[in-house]
Specification:
single chain, alpha+beta, eight-stranded mixed beta sheet, five-stranded antiparallel beta sheet, 29 strands, 29% helix, binds flavin-adenine dinucleotide
Length: 524
């Protein structure tokens, strides 16, 4: 039996991203994936939102995606909402098909040496206090300290763990297909008494991508070319000579949400934890962001630097995010209903979204830029994404995201310089790691740099401590201009864990909460 620290069931976007996050942290991780290759039947997701591009940028790989997609300046909630005025480097949507996104992520996983056991399924598991036995479809089993189900909406892991998946049954069903047509179809959207239908050109310029609202819900059999042809004739009066389909499928507006993202040593992420209709293009995006929230926490627990309870913050932080996505997708589906009253509601919503404040609020939600983890009261940055500012450091001008490339936490000292420099690995090593809890340094009350040095010393093996200056404006999406902080503790996922004046209390508590206690006491 092969042992790994973490086994991930499913190598879709969520599983690949999580594996890379764990590999970056030096964790022995493997993926078990049903598919023989990364090839995907059908297009599925069509792009990346701002926050997802930011998290990829935090790891230094955003360029790989940007070079392959097209930029659009609007997100969509009922109508297009311009986000080009948002304070982020990535104030746009990147149109890029899921097969490309997965190919690029799989390439990165390969570079990081993540083994992918292909053409095998996880069929079950048994967990005890020390780990999980993972059963595979080829009769073999794996042993892991943790198992993460990234195995999609029908997750076998979620079911085997007995985690409830409550939600809303479908009210509408759509046929989706990619095929050739011998006649030129009526491109674009069409609305009728059934709902909205769409015909568009695929990347190859030859095949047609079509989405057709169905007559009813609840069809149990897999859709066929004949079903698509009949639906086209019912809507357009012709099937345009549809032939040679490469993908025919069906999706609905069913929305469901796992009641818990964790059962002891088993966790869920991505579609395994939440499913909803694809309006607004958010599923893949929040799956990748689940992975980035979970990866560093799981790595620390596996290394024994943090207790297992750190994993509970994964559910606490990410469950509300998916709950909001379920809500906004349900609202968008409701707004598409073809009756006159819904049309009137839709026109009213469009008018509201034409105003600046509602546009900014909803667009920030769709793009993921307004994520706010509840880390208590304090500076507006607390629990929010750290903006990618251009900092002045001892080694020159550097972007904040540069410091997050290796997925380590960062303490940014923006006040009096203390001689901390990220590019100096030596400073990390020579800043001796104390085994004692931090003490109030003598005569340091008026010397913030000395206090930072003393406070951070027990964590310098885990946290990069950097002096930097930033003279520009501090601005957050929707919130606007905020007061400049004097010091910031940034988690590996790019969210601010603590901010304030290092001469005040709280920093040691935040370091302990997020990155483990000061003494190098391994947790079992
Ligand atoms: C028509 C459509 C359009 C969409 N458009 C968008 C969009 O524009 N934007 C967006 O963000 N999202 C979109 N989505 C949603 C997006 O495709 C999903 O949210 C995303 O694929 C979820 O990624 P995942 O890795 O969590 O799950 P999946 O992509 O489902 O990956 C799960 C993986 O697990 C494997 N697997 C399953 N069971 C097992 C097992 N037991 N053992 C081993 N392997 C297993 C599967 O083969 C698969 O590779 C769309 C979805 C559809 C259907």
């Amino acid at each position: 039996m092969t042992n790994y620290a973490v086994v991930i069931a499913g190598g879709g976007p969520t599983g690949l991203m999580l594996a890379c996050e764990l590999a970056l942290a030096g964790i022995d991780v493997a993926i078990v994936e049903r598919r023989a290759s990364q090839d995907l039947a059908g297009s599925r997701a069509g792009g990346l939102h701002s926050r997802t591009i930011e998290v990829l940028d935090q790891r230094g790989i955003a360029g790989r995606f940007l070079s392959q997609g097209q930029v659009h300046k609007a997100v969509r909630f009922h109508i297009p909402l311009d986000i080009s005025d948002f304070p982020t480097r990535h104030n746009y949507v990147l149109a890029l098909r899921q097969n490309h996104i997965e190919r690029i992520l799989a390439g990165w996983a390969g570079e990081l040496g993540v083994p992918i056991h292909r053409q095998r399924e996880v069929t079950g598991f048994a967990q005890d206090d020390t780990g999980v036995y993972v059963e595979l479809s080829d009769g073999n089993s794996l042993r892991a300290e943790y198992l993460v189900g990234c195995d999609g909406g029908r997750s076998a892991i979620r079911k085997a763990a007995g985690i409830e998946f409550p939600g809303w049954d479908p009210t509408t069903s759509w046929l989706i297909a990619e095929a050739e047509m011998s006649e030129e179809p009526a491109w674009g959207f069409r609305r009728d008494a059934l709902g909205t239908h769409a015909l568009g050109k695929l990347e190859d310029g030859r095949r047609v991508s079509l989405v057709l609202t169905e007559q009813g819900v609840g069809a149990r059999s897999e859709p066929t070319l004949r079903d698509v042809s009949e639906a086209l004739i019912a809507i357009y009066g012709t099937d345009y000579g549809i032939h040679s389909p490469t993908w025919i499928s069906r999706f609905t507006d069913m929305a469901r949400h796992a009641a818990a993202y964790r059962d002891r040593r088993v966790l869920l992420a991505g579609d395994a934890a939440h499913v909803h209709p694809p309006v607004g293009g958010q599923g893949l995006n929040i799956g990748v962001q689940d992975a980035v929230n979970l990866g560093w926490k799981l790595a620390q627990v596996v290394k024994g630097t943090s207790p297992g309870t750190l994993l509970d913050t994964y559910h606490a932080e990410r469950h509300p995010i998916a709950a909001r996505v379920l809500r906004n997708t349900m609202a968008q589906v409701a707004l598409r209903r073809p009756d006159d009253r819904t049309k009137a509601l839709g026109e009213t919503v469009s008018e509201l979204l034409g105003m600046d404040e509602p546009r900014r609020r909803i667009a920030a939600e769709m793009s993921g830029l307004d994520v706010h983890y509840d880390l208590g009261e304090g500076h507006p940055l607390l629990g929010r994404r750290m903006p990618d500012l251009d900092l002045v450091t001892a080694t020159g001008s550097l972007r904040v995201f540069t410091f997050l490339h290796d997925a380590r936490p960062v303490f940014l000292n923006l006040g009096e310089p203390g001689g901390f420099d990220i590019t100096s690995e030596e400073s990390r090593k020579t800043d001796a790691v104390s085994s004692a809890p931090p003490e109030e340094p003598a005569n340091s009350l008026f010397c913030p740099a000395a206090r930072i040095r003393a406070l951070c010393a027990p964590w310098v093996d885990r946290v990069a401590v950097i002096d930097a200056k930033y003279a520009g404006k501090w601005e957050l999406p929707v919130i606007g201009v905020i007061p400049a902080p004097t010091a910031i503790l940034i988690r590996p996922d790019g969210y601010v864990a603590w901010t304030g004046d290092p001469t005040q209390q709280g920093l040691a508590d935040a370091l302990t909460t997020w990155f483990g206690p000061p003494t190098a006491r391994p947790f079992p």
